[in-house]
């Protein structure tokens, strides 16, 4: 079954699960329609989504969100073989209420039909961004990564992959 928009129950679950003061990142998996009719004009699903994205950008910026990454999906390595995607998009929001404000924005609501018309199917997955990683945590992570790399290099002795602690 194609899913294009968040169900009200999903939004309620998000509100219960994620504190509003936490940044979120939304992973959008997009499968475009080959052709779609928008307001009487036949265009490709990609073109229709591009129009949506162009209309969305000022609204996104107004609520404090930002486009983090967008790319073509190559191959699904883990997942149902019949579930294919054309693009993946990462969008960051300062909070779940910022995302909700975008959805409620009258300009967004007027251009949301572009998204509906463009997509054959989609997934919208919410990830909670870390609040902040301080300098000490980054230094510790870098040090631990170096130590693992050194230990791995020393323990290989001709093996393709380390077998674990010695």
TrEMBL record:
Pfam families: DUF1330 (PF07045). Residues 46-126 form the DUF1330 domain. InterPro entries: Dimeric_a/b-barrel, DUF1330. Gene3D superfamilies: 3.30.70.100. PANTHER family: DUF1330 DOMAIN-CONTAINING PROTEIN, PTHR40257. This is DUF1330 domain-containing protein.
